[in-house]
Automatic annotation (TrEMBL):
Keywords attached to this entry: DNA-binding, Repressor, Transcription, Transcription regulation
Organism of derivation: Serratia rubidaea (Serratia marinorubra)
Protein name listed in UniProt: Catabolite control protein
An example Gene Ontology molecular-function term: transcription cis-regulatory region binding
A Pfam family recorded for this sequence: LacI
InterPro entries associated with the record: HTH_LacI, LacI/GalR-like_sensor, Lambda_DNA-bd_dom_sf, Peripla_BP_I
Matching CDD domains: HTH_LacI, PBP1_LacI_sugar_binding-like
Annotated ranges, domain HTH lacI-type: 5-47
Domain of life: Bacteria
């Protein structure tokens, strides 16, 4: 069925004019909600909704809410790249993008409502905002809305984010598989998503029947900067005293934190990876540090914007569909900053295996 026949057939079945059907299928705003619903239901009955959904996004304007730092590549490259992914995903649809800065927590609810209630705000993307009040307001407004790298605990809004818990579990598990038992986890825990990574790290130790002692294996920072990470690791090593208690590996919460870790180790006379391995959970900003190629787990970033638009389209076409929480997996990049330890250096802390366990 070609495009002209689609319009004519839908117009005939719905009793709407051809111009009204055309405006709905083109995503124009000057159509009533009832007309739009009739057109979409008719398209679905005729089996042509999939063709429509893979074509033009049926709206003209999207409002993007994010922390102020997300709009500056120098202050938050992760969220900045997420926004660039949104721009790229919407470019083919000729959709206007508008922006509004909100705090991560204790956000300005009045500002949010004023932007959402504007006639040109047909849908919204909320990036990295943890304020549950904002989530509740968005759900109550009944406009298509998708959360990015945050979640609605009341389960009323679609959301998409990296699978932070699995990313933490996989990263720590990789180092454990390489024979590292004394791993220092250098993490920033300022958001719930980072707490999920820590939960994954704990799970990796549990799977290996190994204890995880936060007092000896976890150093936290307030941000992801290299200077703060360098100071934190320098202080930690200085307080150890016993060189036999030094970690054999550092798992950093981001590439710039990995820079700080390598800087600290080199200043203290350690070689990476010969004396101590360094791994990052980020993997997009820096391929190497001081000529040392960085092993890292790539956290989904550029893909978030595109997949969020797909969720937004799904919600518009199927307003009664179940609320979706989509998690994207990471990708391991093995380079040279992690050294594999030999078997003598990697005996399990607890062994549950016995050769007679299954003997008759």
């Amino acid at each position: 069925m070609n495009g002209k026949l689609k319009v004519q057939e839908i117009a005939r079945q719905t009793g709407l004019s051809i111009s009204t059907v055309s405006r709905v299928l083109a995503g124009k705003a000057n159509t009533s909600s009832s007309a739009r619903q009739k057109v979409l239901e008719c398209a679905e009955r005729n089996g042509i909704l999939q063709a429509i959904s893979s074509g033009r996004l049926m709206l003209n304007s999207v409002m993007v809410f994010a922390p102020q730092r997300a709009f500056d590549v120098r202050t938050d490259i992760f969220y900045y790249r997420v926004i660039q992914g949104i721009i790229a995903a919407l470019a083919q649809h000729e959709v206007r993008i508008r922006y509004c800065a909100l705090e991560e927590t204790h956000s300005d609810g009045a500002l949010f409502l004023s932007k959402m209630n504007e006639a040109q705000t047909q849908a919204a993307l909320i990036i990295g905002i943890d304020d549950e009040h904002i989530h509740a307001l968005a759900a109550d407004l009944h406009k298509p809305c998708v959360l990015i790298n945050c979640s609605d605990r009341s389960m009323r809004l679609d959301s998409i984010s990296p699978d932070h818990q699995r990313i933490g579990e996989f990263s720590a598990g990789y180092l454990l598989q390489q024979g590292h038992q004394r791993i220092l986890h250098l993490q920033c825990l300022r958001r719930h998503t980072m707490e999920l990574r820590l939960a994954g790290i704990r799970q990796a130790y549990l799977q290996q029947h190994m204890p995880f002692d936060e007092s000896r294996q976890l150093v936290t920072t307030s941000g992801f900067g290299s200077a703060e990470a360098e100071q934190a690791l320098t202080t930690f090593i200085g307080q150890l005293g016993d060189r036999d208690a030094l970690p054999t590996a550092v798992l950093a919460g981001g590439d710039y934190m990995a820079v700080g870790a390598v800087n600290a180790l080199q200043r203290l006379g350690f070689s990476v990876p010969n004396d101590m391995s360094v791994m990052s959970m980020d993997g997009f900003n820096l391929a190497e540090i001081h000529d040392v190629p960085l092993t890292s787990l790539h956290v989904p970033r550029d893909e978030l914007g595109f997949e969020a638009i797909q969720l937004l389209q799904r919600r518009m076409l199927r307003p009664d569909a179940p609320v979706c929480n989509q998690l994207l997996q990471g990708r391991l990049a093995i380079r040279e900053s992690v050294k594999r330890l030999n078997a003598q250096q990697a005996t399990p802390a607890v062994s549950t295996y016995h050769h007679k366990l299954y003997d008759a």
